[in-house]
Specification:
The chain is an all-alpha fold. It has helices at about 20-40, 45-50, 60-75, 75-85, 95-110, 115-130, 135-150, 155. It is globular and about 40 Å long.
Length: about 160
């Protein structure tokens, strides 16, 4: 849980030189860890134990990071089965960045229902804009929008 800091998706103005929330940083690190897992085959424990040399741990929601990394790896087959019907290609044909982002967001949609689906999708789109290909964010948005409708129909029905 974040300390009395910014709410979901709002800037963490207390972090020196950073406008990213601790949750956003946890998603970024989970993305990097999942990339290592997908491309390099490293195990979750080794990835999570890796020192965070580039940024201090105090700028990260470390509990959320650990949950995302381990949860996405543990439930990867289930998560892929959830988003695969909305892909226009096989899961194996996804870029590792898009694949990792879809795993993270699918995990949050499925297992972290207290996080509004719009926040999950927005955060995934921001990750794709920062780390993915030119139009990867559009692809991620389209897949997750359909998945959110399936997983959270009541929340989607509340749209105005």
């Amino acid at each position: 849980m974040e300390q009395s800091g910014p709410s979901e998706g709002q800037p963490n103005r207390g972090a020196k030189g950073s406008s990213r929330s601790a949750r956003r940083r946890s998603r970024e690190l989970a993305l990097q860890g999942l990339y290592q897992w997908l491309v390099g085959g490293r195990d979750a424990a080794a990835i999570q134990a890796q020192p965070l040399d580039d940024e201090p741990i105090h700028g990260v929601d470390s509990a959320h990071y650990g949950e995302l990394l381990n949860g996405a790896i543990t439930h990867a087959d289930t998560l892929r089965a959830l988003f695969a019907p909305y892909l226009d290609r096989s899961v194996n044909a996804l870029s590792p960045v898009e694949h990792a982002i879809l795993l993270i967001a699918s995990y949050e949609l499925q297992y972290r229902v207290e996080i509004p689906y719009r926040v999950v999708i927005n955060e995934a789109v921001e990750l794709a804009k920062s780390f993915g290909g030119t139009d990867g964010f559009r692809y991620v948005n389209g897949v997750l929008d359909k998945l959110a409708t399936q997983l959270r129909p009541a929340e989607g029905a509340q749209k105005t």
